[in-house]
Amino acid sequence: MTILSAETSGQENVVLAPNMVQGSNFVVLGTLAAAGATFHPSSVIPKNRVTPQLLQLHGMPAGTSAGQILVDVTRGSQAFVDSVSVGVATMTQPFTTTSTTTVQTGFEASPAEDDSWANTDTFQLYTVPLYNLKVLNTNNADTATTALTTPTVWVQYIHIPDISGSPGYSQYISAASSVSSVVYSNVWFDPTFIGQSELASYDSSNLSCWHNGGMSLRSWGAIGGASSTTGSFFLNGSYLQDLSVVDGDIILHKSFTAKGGYSLAGYAYTDTGPSGPSEIAASQLRIEPYDFANSILWGPGAIDLNSGGSLVNESGTTWANCLTVTGALTLDGASTGWSPPATGTVTLNGTAAVTITGVNGTNAFPANATFTLSLHTVGGTPGTTAPYFFTATTANAAQIKSGTTNANDVYNWNAAPTPGVSITAGNIDIYQRLWSPISGSYFGPT
Description:
Elements: E1 2-3, E2 14-16, E3 26-30, E4 33-39, E5 43-45, E6 56-58, E7 69-72, E8 77-85, E9 88-91, E10 95-96, H1 97-101, E11 123-127, E12 133-140, E13 152-156, E14 159-160, E15 171-178, E16 181-185, E17 188-189, E18 192-197, E19 205-207, E20 210-211, E21 215-218, E22 221-223, E23 226-227, E24 238-241, E25 245-247, E26 250-252, E27 256-258, E28 263-265, E29 267-270, E30 278-281, E31 284-287, E32 296-298, E33 303-306, E34 310-313, H2 319-322, E35 329-331, E36 336-339, E37 342-347, E38 354-357, E39 371-377, E40 388-389, E41 397-401, E42 410-415, E43 418-422, H3 425-431, E44 434-435, E45 442-444
Parallel strand pairs: 1-3, 2-12, 3-13, 12-15, 13-16, 14-17, 15-18, 16-19, 17-20, 18-21, 19-22, 20-23, 21-24, 22-25, 23-26, 24-27, 25-28, 26-29, 27-30, 28-31, 29-32, 30-33, 31-34, 33-35, 34-45
Antiparallel strand pairs: 4-11, 5-6, 6-9, 7-8, 7-11, 8-9, 8-10, 36-43, 37-42, 38-41, 39-42, 40-41, 44-45
């Protein structure tokens, strides 16, 4: 189905329920309309996952508006305009046009990021045609080859309106059952997008889509684009559950909520919403590579773990590298957590000082840890009195002595779980896990 020109909101009601057999695909393809002439921006501010900074173009043409697609003609890539202020456009992550417009299942789709935009490039703005698609569900299981390029429903370059006139008040529901795949590419959603698929499906996903009214995903992927940019309904946000994925430097405005079964975050940017931080509640979110080699959860957003929720590092690198959000990290609303217990052995050296040494990332302990000692091995010169602490404890260093000259007994030491550790990516690296005794929520390994 080729959409040649834009409709008006409410002009018709389109409900699709395609069933593809014998390895067929079903494609809905909108036709972009050029908006103005080609141009060169005055400057380009590149994306930076550390500072954090979204891609911005300065010196945009008059009339540029959020929801338009901007194509870098020079480099063959494109992105949505997420917002515009005084000639400055904040962009979603650009992808090569070919990688998001080749019809295939979500399992095979491999979007390629382009971070090379420059003010010397030639750009063209396009308007996405409005199409009154209300529901799209599919039921089928036929795939023609083991390459998994079929079966898929592929929807590209359309703008789905919210007839209320306010993004996020209506809902657009898309479901994929059996092993079918539904892929939306470069689609503008004004209703809240609700994507639901079977765990065994061929990876239904949204590629570089602008979820203006927010989204709720269950076993669905959102790669690139943005969510909840201008949604005004109080529930608008981004909801993840049951093996959902956010990746491709998707912009999660307001806040996100992870619930239900565990979900994955590859490259994802998060804001803090007006109602508070993002939440991981009774669920697990794993920072883990998906479509790309690495994974980073970044942006100015704050994140709170509660009700047994956990944020887990499966990135293959340190917390300091994979969690660069600049907002507060909290457990049940508190900015501090408990360190795990730490254990080791120490050999006495008579009445000379011996240091119990913790190692960051292995058996680290904070300065206020409570210690217990138990005899491990009697030395050649046994002590006749118990060892004792003789100086104040500092992080990873507690000094003890024996009351017996030349005593060389070996003792087990144990640092008890300790409260009051500030929750930072660096401290999670040091202690491996920071947790809350209130709900059992934690930052740490699986």
